[in-house]
From TrEMBL:
One of its GO terms (molecular function) is protein-folding chaperone binding. Keywords: Chaperone. It comes from the Eukaryota. This is Chaperone DnaJ C-terminal domain-containing protein. PANTHER family: DNAJ CHAPERONE C-TERMINAL DOMAIN-CONTAINING PROTEIN (PTHR24078:SF522), DNAJ HOMOLOG SUBFAMILY C MEMBER (PTHR24078). The lineage of its organism: Eukaryota, Viridiplantae, Streptophyta, Embryophyta, Tracheophyta. Residues 11-136 form the Chaperone DnaJ C-terminal domain.
Length: 155
């Protein structure tokens, strides 16, 4: 800030609150006109803030969708499985796979449970639950023979 009487430069800190809207993506810029540095004989600069995303332990953002990866033991992938988790909002979601065989690369899409879409009030992306099958690292000869007998007619 410039002192009009003696033309000296004075440092002054200003605090400004920025309301981050739900759904803003990494790289979104917020410009505060005239709130940046000032110099004698120049107009004050703009202050520009860029939105960054914090990594989450469970979810990954892909556009407006959220992706959750879950590991499923092989026996559960073949015989049925269910699990529960909490969304970022705190809402509890349960996924059940009772009447289906979970294949490698299986993905369940839950519509409207992803990130808010900033440009569309009330709209949300999807939640994509990607299931990874965990195969046993070793089997006994007896287990192999049993599996071969049980699965011999499966196609």
């Amino acid at each position: 800030m410039i002192n009009a009487f003696d033309r000296s430069i004075v440092k002054k800190e200003v605090t400004q609150a920025i309301m981050v809207k739900p759904g803003w993506r990494k790289g979104h810029k917020v410009t505060l006109d005239g709130m940046g540095d000032e110099r004698p004989g120049c107009l004050p600069a703009d202050a520009v803030f860029t939105v960054a995303e914090k990594k989450h332990s469970m979810f990954k953002r892909v556009g407006d969708d959220l992706v959750l990866k879950a590991k499923v033991p092989l026996v559960n992938a073949l015989t049925g499985w269910s699990f529960s988790f909490r969304l970022l909002s705190g809402k509890k979601v349960s996924c059940k796979f009772d009447d289906e065989v979970i294949c490698p690369g299986y993905e369940k899409v839950i519509k409207g449970e992803g990130m808010p879409i900033a440009e569309q009030r009330g709209a949300r992306g999807d939640l994509r639950v990607k299931l990874e099958i965990v195969f046993p690292e070793q089997l006994t000869d007896e287990q192999r023979a049993g599996l071969a007998e049980i699965l011999k007619d499966c196609t």
